[in-house]
Amino acid sequence: MIARLKGSRHNRYVSRIVFCVLVVAGALLATRHGQAHKAVTSKYTYNDDVFPILRDRCSRCHVQGGVAPMSLMTYDEAFPWGESIRAELIAAHMPPWNADGGFGELKHAHALSPNELDVILTWVTGGNPRGSLDQKLPAVTLVNDWTMGKPDLALPLPSEYAMPADSMEETKEFTIATGTTEARWVRAVDLLPGTPAIVRSAVIFVKTAGASTAGGPAPEQVLARWVPGLDAEPLEGGAAYRLPAGAELGVRIHYRKTWSYESKPMADRSTVGVYFAQASAAQEVYALPLTSPALPAADATNKSITFTQAIDSDLQAIALSPEQVPANITLQVQAVLPNGTRAPMIRLNTRADWARRYWFEHPMALPRGSKIEVTANLVDPDLMSAAFGSPAAPKATGPSTLRLALDVLPAGAKPVAP
Ligand code: HEC
After folding, report:
1. Domain assignment present for 27
2. Which of 57, 62, 73, 140 is the pocket-test mutation for ligand 1 (most atoms within 8 Å of CB)?
3. Could you give the CA distance from residue 217 to residue 288 in angstroms, rounded to a whole number?
4. Residue located nearest, by CA, to atom 31 of ligand 1
5. Are residues 238 and 274 part of one domain?
6. What is the reported pLDDT for 328?
7. For the ranges 121-135, 187-201, 225-239, 380-394, which has the lowest average pLDDT?
8. Angle CA 406–409–410, to nearest 5
9. Among the atoms of ligand 1, which is closest to the Cα of residue 85?
10. What CATH code is carried by the domain that includes residue 313?
């Protein structure tokens, strides 16, 4: 094309443009490739190999408007994060999941496969090649919708919550009236964040008005533990949560801004979705608390604790949630059956913010006389003194006991009306 242009003025003009374009392109390449001298050794490119993995595994959060601090959905957005991605993947921090794949069987494990891990690590350490420049990748946008379809009851928070510009994180509790006139069985409860960028986690529970039970106030019955990127999990096999007539729901939301929203005022009005069970008779799912004795002091030499909880009727366990646990410890839970067999349930490396309800792949039978055995390793002494409070930092007090909740239902009993 250049060759076809006639006249020397034209040619000089064109070659100057070509020169400028080359200089700009060169400068762009040099800044793009921060380590311009790093040789490209990766056989994997962003376009062909890395993008599909990031889209499948990271895009529910790392997308414009998502809860993560940055999008990874274009080459330009992902490129600067290479080293950070490497560090997060090697520490098994991303995608957030925290359960050990080699212990117990859990539904929807979020860990990357060895092959996915290999592709991304090879790419970030091998010069981050882009692939063909004229290859167009599909645009990835934030999806913020009910994962189980429209709920039977959509209950918005009573009012909008305004998060001040100078605040980075807050936990707020809201009360929502369900307006139901009879007791109902519920198969799932979900949350649709109003502003996905700041809603970090939510616990939705049935509020028990003190006078309702004879034997003192019942513990909160948790209906859902929501974290970003998690599909709602409908109960199966005739199990359901009980929602008393006219119940009120408590919604405890942890709001947190990432650095990209620092010092900006934000607002949220999330909506709770309730899905009723079809059948009129079901078995009630309830939480069995697993509570430790007092944790060892920060300066104790033995930093591990084991405690057990006896099971005194035939049960099935379907899920387990860390309720009150310090961050950065290791927890292992297993069932010891009456015949002495040990059945692994879960091993967790706890992290702040990412506590969820972990569902067992199959309901676990816990015959009467079984025991649940929990071992906690309060590994890092520095983290431990920060988490539990020490003379040097009297304000940073953490929990003095551990509490987990095991979701169970009676085994072999007949379904009943709510
Ligand atoms: C469920 C939501 C979610 C998913 C899925 C997720 N992330 Fe994240 N990511 C976050 C959030 C939120 C943060 C901010 C730090 C925090 O709070 O843990 C973060 C932080 C990071 C950081 C560190 C950013 C910084 O500021 O230093 C990297 C790197 C990262 N994620 C990479 C990934 C990759 C790669 C994937 C997919 C393989 C992924 N993440 C999947 C939510 C997610």
Report:
1. yes
2. 62
3. 15
4. 94
5. yes
6. 87
7. 380-394
8. 130
9. 29
10. 2.60.120.230
> Which residue minimizes the CA distance to atom 27 of ligand 1?
84
Does some domain include residue 52? yes
Residue nearest to atom 7 of ligand 1 (CA): 95
Q: What is the pLDDT of residues 304-360, one digit of tens each?
A: 999 999 999 999 999 999 999 988 889 999 999 999 999 999 999 998 888 899 999
169 and 64 share a domain? no
Specify if 251 maps to a domain: yes
pLDDT, tens digit, for every residue of 282-302? 999 999 999 999 888 777 777
Contact 148, 275 (CB under 8 A): yes
Instruction: Answer yes or no: is 326 within a domain.
Output: yes
Boundary (domain end) residue, out of 125, 141, 163 = 125
Beta strands in 227-285 (DSSP E): 239-243, 248-256, 266-268, 271-276, 283-284
The 10s digit of each residue's pLDDT in 2-34 is 333 333 444 444 444 444 444 444 444 444 444
Residues 229 and 316 in one domain: no
Q: Number of C-alpha atoms within 13 angstroms, CB side, residue 80?
A: 6
Close Cβ partners of 257 (under 8 Å, ≥ 6 residues apart)? 163, 167, 168, 169, 197, 198, 264, 266
Judgement on whether residues 298 and 398 belong to the same structural domain of the protein: yes
Which of the listed residues 125, 141, 164 is the one where a domain comes to its end? 125
Pocket residue to mutate for ligand 1, from 49, 55, 58, most atoms within 8 A of Cβ: 58
The pLDDT confidence band at residue 273, using thresholds 50, 70 and 90, is very high
For residue 167 the two structure tokens come to 């605040």
Residue 390 has pLDDT above 70, yes or no: no
State yes or no: cis peptide before 410, omega within 30 of 0.
no
Same domain, 268 and 234: yes
| 332/403 same-domain check | yes
User: Half-sphere exposure of 153 toward its Cβ, with a 13 Å CA cutoff?
Assistant: 21
Among 356, 139, 339, residue whose Cα is nearest residue 230: 356
Residue range of the domain that includes 55: 46-125
- Structurally, how many domains does the chain consist of? 4
12 and 72 assigned to the same domain: no
270 and 297 share one domain: no
Task: Measure 390 CA to ligand 1 centroid, in angstroms.
Answer: 31
Question: Ligand 1 centroid vs 328 CA: distance in angstroms?
Answer: 17
Which residue has a Cα nearest atom 28 of ligand 1? 85
